[in-house]
Amino acid sequence: MVKNAAEWAAEPKFPNSHYVNSRIYTDPTIFEEEKEKLFKSSWIIACHESEIPGTYDYRLFTHPTGVPLIIVRGEDMKVRSFYNVCPHRGNTILYDPAGNAKRMTCIFHAWSFDTRGNCIDISRAEQGYQNRYRKEDSGLRAVKTEVGFGGFVWVNLDDGSCTLNEYIGPALDMLEPHMQEPMEVFHFHKAVVNTNYKLWHDTNSEFYHDFLHYFNRITGMMQPGYYDRKYVGYPNGHASVGSMEIKYDAYAGSKVRKIGWPGLAPGGWILIDLFPGMTYNLRTSVLRIDTSVPLGPDKVMIEFRGLGLKRDTPEERAQRIFDHNTIWSPFGRNLHEDLLAVYGQGRAMHEGTDSRWVIHGREENNTIHDEIGMRHFYAEWSRRMGRPAYDPFLEGRREPTFAAA
Amino acid sequence: MTTDQRQQIEELVYQSCLALDEQDFKGYLELCDKSFRYSITAFSPEIRKDMTWLDHDKSGMETLFTNLPRHNSDHSPLTRHATVYRISREGERAEVVSALQVFRTALDGGSTELLAVGRYHDTIKLDADAPKLLKRVVKLVTRELGIGHHIPF
After folding, report:
1. Which of A16, A24, A138, A383 has most Cβ atoms within 10 angstroms of its Cβ?
2. Per residue in A260-296, pLDDT tens?
3. Could you tell me how many CB contacts below 8 A there are between chain A and chain B?
4. Strands of the A112-113 sheet, one edge to the other
5. Overall number of domains in chain A
6. Is residue A187 in a domain?
7. Using the beta-carbon criterion (under 8 Å), do B146 and A339 form an inter-chain contact?
8. ∠A50-A52-A56 over CA atoms, to 5°?
9. Among A336, A337, A338, which would you mutate to test the B interface (most chain B Cβ atoms within 10 Å of its Cβ)?
10. What are the C-alpha distances in Å from A76 to residues A45, A87, A199?
């Protein structure tokens, strides 16, 4: 039955943990708060150690708060991170997305910095500053950096944050046995999509949308065990989905995967979502990592990485690349469908479209089509934001409740 | 190389663009030799590696086209513009380099945006009645393709 205006605006008949107000996906005030309350103090994947294998190798990363960062490996092989901002006149220090720099020199006035962030040269310092300002006063802003959980480089802008281990907790335990060997990134691309970053994370947090994918409908959903995959929620808003076996040869043009992954059952699949916008996705022969960098309330840049094993033979690597591309390259079967779907959400939820509610109401004993993954995320989101996702501006004029998922 | 041969090669490159633009996949495959190989590649300065994003033989391309209607895809039309820059003949083959621009037009026709630039690196077989594509490597300069696409460039 169709709805009139009042019925369309009425809250869904679910517990308030089972739906959110669509303004959390579109409101500029909320977006700015998210950067401060969620992203600034969260551990975020900046790159993988294989992207900076040698001394003085560096990689640039735009943090979800907007801060430009340099990730660099020093001569002691330690990985450190700094703002890519010259302390002199606020200019960009490094421009190329990756490279090798023993000295990082700002092109504007030739101030130079070493890989520990120390300023090692101020051009004509004595003539200009006499003894009032020295290179010892002008180091780079250091950012907390740790390497772990598969060799990824994690950064945290909050000097007082918890450790990476405390932040992740047990969330990646299911994957740890499969990340004991050194890995290597073979695929990297970015997708800028006009949608909210949470909508991408939502898609990674529920498998009900397998109906979107012809590939999944015939390779996964038809198989025994599919509906037994269970979601597990962890502290800090992380969640995982258990493994299952995929019969890839059910898709024309695809075939049984020739190579697998250490410790993973043939055709196995493990997916773990990390708050507030990262996903580990180990599927048969490839580990895919998504890192969301929100650019606005209605725009997100997603960094996609595909990883194999460092010890891969050329033939094994070629097979992993083929497996990856079949579903996850910019021309892959599934990634385009997923991105098309969240683009559509962004389009329908744009300010002024009178979209009101997004329902996370499916309950199936925490199994694959249950929407517990999103409910778990929004319980943490509401707690950290101090705003209930179902009523972020307290328009219902009630005391907020922060229900557990 | 005769002017006629050069013209045939150029027409083959342009016809391949038209066929894909019109989603005439049968017509596209008819331009390809039975040993045709197609790939899309890009260099990532971020990971400092050459990447392959799609790689199929002729049979793989046929399957890709056959599967298209089964998938949910963005139906915004693509328009491919190629300009043949260089043709080098080696016996019964020609190596052809063309500039490529791919435009995407909104479904309502309201706007057209430049989606990608790159080059076709084609190997063309000349010993048949009409030249045929033996190999096409699409080397993309643009690596940010938004939501991506199911139909190759």
Report:
1. A24
2. 999 998 878 899 999 999 999 999 899 999 999 999 9
3. 105
4. A104-105, A112-113, A119-121
5. 2
6. yes
7. yes
8. 155
9. A336
10. 22, 24, 41
Read off the tokens for B66. 């056959």
State whether A192 and B64 contact (CB < 8 Å): no
Mutant choice from B72, B75, B78 vs A, greatest count of A C-beta within 10 A? B72
Supply the angle between the helices A314-328 and A333-348 in degrees, to the nearest 10.
Answer: 30
Of the partner residues B40, B51, B147, the one whose CB lies closest to the CB of residue A336:
B147
Tokens of A325: 């591309």
- Region A164-177: mean pLDDT is 96
Q: Determine, yes or no, domain membership for A405.
A: no
pLDDT band at A399 (very low <50, low <70, confident <90, very high): low
* pTM listed for this prediction: 0.95
Model confidence at A244, in pLDDT bands (50, 70, 90)? low
Query: A337 to chain B: nearest residue by CA?
Result: B72
Query: B interface mutation test: which of A325, A339, A342, A345 has the most B CBs within 10 A?
Result: A325
CA A144 from chain center: how many Å? 18
Q: Is A192's CB within 8 Å of B144's CB? A: yes
User: Does residue A21 fall inside a structural domain?
Assistant: no
Same structural domain, A219 and A355: yes
What does pLDDT average to over chain A? 94
Tens digits of per-residue pLDDT, B79-136? Answer: 999 999 999 999 999 999 999 999 999 999 989 999 999 999 999 999 878 999 999 9
Chain B residue numbers touching A333 (CB-CB < 8 A): 67, 71, 150
pLDDT for A352 = 87
- Domains, chain B, ranges and CATH? 3-140 (3.10.450.50)
Q: Supply the range of the domain harboring residue A208.
A: 177-385
Domain shared by A115 and A240, yes or no: no
Nearest neighbour of A190 by CB, restricted to B55, B66, B144 = B144
pLDDT at residue A404 in the model: 61
Which residues, listed in sequence order, are joined to residue A294 by a DSSP beta bridge? Answer: A300
Instruction: Tell me the nearest-neighbour CA distance from A162 into chain B, angstroms.
Output: 29
Work out the minimum CA distance from B132 to partner chain A, whole angstroms. Answer: 24
The residues facing B51 across adjacent strands are B42
Encoding tokens for residue A83?
A: 């703002």
Do the domain assignments include residue A378? yes
